[in-house]
């Protein structure tokens, strides 16, 4: 594992018949690298593994692993608005599920809270619809630049945005997102309108890139990016 860094420091689709591109193939893992085979399960050692998959174009795709190492207990309190849709995996990690278990276009989001900072991973359309995650957010981590994973970036204007460095342009502007998909002409124009209207796309020119092995230190909880 690389050295830990404070999150605020140097950090490092469907309707148009076009298959989405994922420049950075990365999945969400909460636990250690050796736990990658465990799916959505709390282990006896206190680590939790969450494999986040994108449902779209008739298949699931594994994108990014974020490894969360728990060191101290804390309590994650969710507001009543989430109800059973908030799946508390540990004192630090909560899955915010969308309708139909997070099927596209809603998606699932992951809330990770340390002693110092709280991050939300891939804030979904459902997060926008519910008006947030029930607590202040210090930073957003986008696994990759797809419209359903960027939907809530504009909901937290004071939060920093981190995304894999190969996909930064997709968070910075809608033109950059269209470039991620490689769309042109009328298809590009139509999908641009859709991601703005239906996915609440908000440009985040402040987005910062990170790479494989980067460790976000939340205070008692480390989140490690693992590029698959």
Q: Topology, pairings included?
A:
Layout: E1 4-6, E2 41-42, E3 48-49, E4 53-56, E5 59-62, E6 65-70, E7 86-88, E8 93-96, H1 99-102, E9 109-113, E10 118-121, H2 125-129, E11 139-142, H3 147-150, E12 160-164, H4 168-172, H5 174-181, H6 185-197, E13 208-210, E14 215-217, E15 221-226
Parallel strand pairs: 1-14, 10-11, 11-12, 12-13
Antiparallel strand pairs: 2-3, 4-5, 6-15, 7-8, 8-9, 9-10, 14-15
Amount of helix = 10-25%
Q: Give the count of helical stretches.
A: 6
Give the helix/strand class: alpha/beta
C-alpha termini separation: 15 Å
Parts with pLDDT < 50 across at least 5 consecutive residues: 1-25, 27-64, 70-76
Mean of the pLDDT scores? 76
Radius of gyration: 16 Å
How would a crystallographer describe the biggest sheet? Answer: 7 strands, mixed
Q: Secondary-structure element sequence?
A: EEEEEEEEHEEHEHEHHHEEE
The number of strands is 15
Shape by Cα distribution: globular
Question: Taking strands numbered 1, 2, ... along the chain, how are they ordered across the largest sheet?
Answer: 7-8-9-10-11-12-13
Q: Give the DSSP E fraction (strand runs of 2 or more residues).
A: 25-35%
